[in-house]
Task: inverse folding
């Protein structure tokens, strides 16, 4: 039972990682579930947020302004994707790919080089948890509290007149415009908010690992999607509360599964393949079960 | 009931696929006006331009020529969402008028603010519950006790009835009903029609109802418009309409068409 020992040692770190990626999960869930518009921008806005926050911190701006800049950067990235989608009639997926490709170059411009180290600077963690940056469990606790505050704020927003309108645009665009809602505007707002979440995740990640790197976005979208799907399988999605907390719970559980897989001897480089297969299975499952059901009912006739 | 002035439509023209072999003129100079509180029924064969007329008034499609005025305000170039403050609609497809993923309550709250600015106030409130319950109870479907249910749980007839209540919740100046009972079974269609008459009477809106049902066309409304080939070919006022039967209407329709074919 050696691997269990290894796994238990990994639990605190993977809890902290899970809460960081929960931000990405929220950034993926909003377009996919609330707007019914698949969006890949997270893959670009995550490193964009990291690059902006890292450069700002290294440039002496302080932690809070750095996080705000990152948030703003993500909002711009998401907004740009939505605008490309709406005004150039490009599918939302391709619009996201265009933006994340742009962001790769922009991120290097922002940092002046492909990565930025923050080891000698104050971060969210050193500021709150002492010069060593705190233990993984205390990092997890801090991030979890921040996440809960953000999730409840999101829950409140989605119950306001504006939030209700946003959900209506996702649920039925014909009805939404018949009720006087500019569907384009709400799509831009929704994707921009999602971009803000992913970029905030990136900003926290940069401070968590004390560096930002242009390649840190590779695969985060699938992690966000896997977290959302996993969370929905666990807590469901029949109320807004559950829908919002699903990616958070999902991300935390996902990184536990990752820790378990690693302690069983899996290479970290295999994880992307496994995650992608998991998402494929989750997306394909309804179709597979439907096929099997049809074949069975055919046989029984 | 002359609180609001009505709808005025002048010389609407619309051609689809212009400049190609598929070129089709769907509106060929449509003009009419409706007073507030007036209830007009629009009939005509398939492809006559009835739905296109409704969509042009609603703003779902912009016309090539002509003008549309709502209470003397020129709305010809405004998109649908900018006309929604004045116009409420019930679509032919029961799925279109409501958001299935939201609750009955949330759908009503959205419609309650049709065309108004939305802010950061909570969308739902205690005061609204009572008002919504009262509005729904008129239908007699028990929907007033199911406010929290998702609309996806409702039947087509129930959804159409809900859309109707949503449409008349905040006093539209114009009510557009586009074959709104056509997709329902006969019993549900009668229920929705009955609820429509009540809603039209209560709202005092200028109402334009498209229908294929000749019985409905002669029995309801105080004006009858008939379209053919993108034009309004006749317009009966309430006195003339009262003397017409469904059979005569069909007869007259065929007469007009065959006359046209002879002169063509």
Result:
């Amino acid at each position: 039972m050696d691997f269990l020992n290894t796994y238990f040692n990994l639990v605190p770190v993977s809890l902290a990682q899970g809460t960081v990626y929960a931000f990405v999960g929220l950034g993926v869930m909003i377009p996919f579930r609330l707007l019914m518009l698949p969006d890949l921008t997270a893959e670009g806005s995550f490193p964009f947020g990291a690059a902006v926050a890292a450069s700002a911190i290294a440039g002496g701006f302080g932690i809070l302004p750095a996080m705000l800049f990152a948030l703003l950067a993500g909002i711009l990235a998401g907004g740009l994707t939505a605008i490309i989608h709406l005004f150039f009639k490009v599918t939302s997926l391709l619009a996201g790919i265009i933006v994340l490709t742009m962001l790769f170059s922009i991120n290097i411009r922002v940092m002046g080089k492909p990565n930025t180290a923050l080891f000698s600077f104050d971060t969210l963690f050193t500021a709150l948890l002492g010069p060593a940056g705190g233990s993984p469990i205390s990092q997890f606790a801090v991030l979890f509290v921040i996440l809960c505050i953000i999730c409840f704020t999101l829950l409140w927003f989605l119950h306001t007149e504006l939030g209700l309108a946003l959900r209506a645009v996702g649920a039925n665009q014909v009805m939404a415009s018949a009720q006087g809602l500019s569907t384009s505007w709400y799509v831009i707002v929704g994707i921009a908010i999602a971009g803000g979440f992913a970029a905030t995740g990136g900003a926290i990640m940069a401070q968590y690992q004390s560096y930002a790197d242009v390649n840190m976005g590779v695969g985060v979208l699938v992690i966000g999607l896997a977290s959302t799907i996993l969370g929905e399988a666990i807590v469901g999605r029949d109320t807004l509360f559950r829908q919002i907390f699903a990616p958070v719970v999902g991300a935390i559980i996902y990184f536990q599964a990752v820790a378990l897989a690693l302690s069983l001897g899996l290479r970290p480089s295999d994880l992307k393949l496994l995650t992608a297969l998991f998402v494929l299975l989750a997306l394909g499952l309804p179709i597979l079960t439907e096929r099997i059901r049809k074949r069975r009912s055919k046989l029984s006739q | 009931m002359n609180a609001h002035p009505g709808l005025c439509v002048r010389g609407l023209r619309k051609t689809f696929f212009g400049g190609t072999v598929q070129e089709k003129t769907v509106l060929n100079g449509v003009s009419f006006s409706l007073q507030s509180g007036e209830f007009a029924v629009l009939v005509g064969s398939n492809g006559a331009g009835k739905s296109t007329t409704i969509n042009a008034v609603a703003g779902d499609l912009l016309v090539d020529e002509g003008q549309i005025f709502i209470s003397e305000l020129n709305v010809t170039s405004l998109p649908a969402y900018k006309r929604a403050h004045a116009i409420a609609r019930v679509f032919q497809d029961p799925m279109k008028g409501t958001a299935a993923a939201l609750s009955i309550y949330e759908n009503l709250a959205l419609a309650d603010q049709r065309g108004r600015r939305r802010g950061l106030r909570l969308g739902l409130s205690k005061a609204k519950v009572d008002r919504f319950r009262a509005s729904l109870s008129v239908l007699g479907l028990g929907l007033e006790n199911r406010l929290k249910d998702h609309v996806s749980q409702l039947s087509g007839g129930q959804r159409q009835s809900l859309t109707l209540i949503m449409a008349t919740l905040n006093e539209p100046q114009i009510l557009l009903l586009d074959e709104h009972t056509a997709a329902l079974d006969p019993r549900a269609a009668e229920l929705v029609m009955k609820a429509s008459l009540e809603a039209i009477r209560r709202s005092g809106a200028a109402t334009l109802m498209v229908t294929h049902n000749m019985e409905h066309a002669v029995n309801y409304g105080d004006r009858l418009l008939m379209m053919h080939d993108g034009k309004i070919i006749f317009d009966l006022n309430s006195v003339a309409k009262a003397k017409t039967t469904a059979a005569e209407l069909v007869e007259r329709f065929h007469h007009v068409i065959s006359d046209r074919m002879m002169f063509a």
Notes: The beta strands of chain A are 115-117, 211-213. The longest strand of chain A covers residues 115-117. The radius of gyration of chain A is 20 Å. Chain A touches chain B through 23 residues (CB under 8 Å).
